[in-house]
Specification:
This protein is of the alpha/beta class. The protein has one domain. It is built from 7 helices and 7 strands, in the order E-E-E-E-H-H-H-E-H-E-H-H-E-H.
Length: 203
């Protein structure tokens, strides 16, 4: 069955900050991994029609530069605030049309909110692993991915999308393009999900 995974950090910071001779804090840091089965979808192969799902160059910088210069000049040059003011002045945007629910609920994870009930449902979610550790480096993320590999060795040549925040994108991709590690974790495909994208844009 096709699964989408999520790796993120969890911090237990509700503690008494009373330094002793050993430490200054008793806060705990954990790496958590959950999986959501996608019933309607079959598995995706890593290689299809002799083409790998991974870009062998990781990032084609020349391609990004070409598109930015030739197709997106004048679009990404202006801030959202500048564009918003322009839209309002040209009557292309009514300030009252903003999605107030989205603005209020983007940081609220309660699935009882009608507008977010389906996409935030925990139904079918599986806890893969929960381990006390940081997520600050390539090594940390490799250890977190081992939580998945320890119970899902059958991944084989199947793609395992893994939703992660921006540090997760960077460190997992670094690991994928490290020769000594790539074969062990080549099934994983890091993805930046709409929630993290929305949080990053508003923060």
């Amino acid at each position: 069955m096709f699964h989408v995974y999520n790796v993120d950090d969890y911090h237990a910071i509700h503690e008494i900050r009373r330094p002793d001779t050993v430490s200054t804090s008793t806060a705990k840091h954990f790496a958590t991994c959950v999986a959501k089965p996608i019933i309607e979808s079959s598995f995706v192969p890593i290689i299809f029609n002799n083409i790998s799902i991974h870009n062998p160059s990781n990032v084609d910088a020349w391609r990004i530069c070409w598109y930015l210069i030739n197709q997106y000049t004048g679009i990404f040059d202006n801030s959202y605030l500048d564009n918003q003011q322009c839209w309002i002045s040209q009557r292309q945007l009514n300030i009252n049309e903003f999605d107030r629910v989205e603005a209020l609920t983007v940081h609220i994870y309660n699935d009882n909110i009608t507008e977010r009930k389906e996409e935030r449902s925990m139904k079918g979610l599986q806890l893969v692993g929960f381990k006390e550790q940081h997520l600050h480096s390539v090594h940390d993320y490799i250890n977190a991915l081992k939580l998945i590999l320890s119970i899902n060795e059958h991944l084989g040549q199947q793609v395992a999308p893994i939703v992660a925040d921006w540090p997760g994108q960077i460190f997992i991709r670094k690991a994928l393009y490290t020769d000594t590690l790539s074969r062990k974790i080549e099934s994983f495909l890091p993805m930046l999900d709409p929630l993290h994208l929305s949080l990053n844009s508003q923060e």
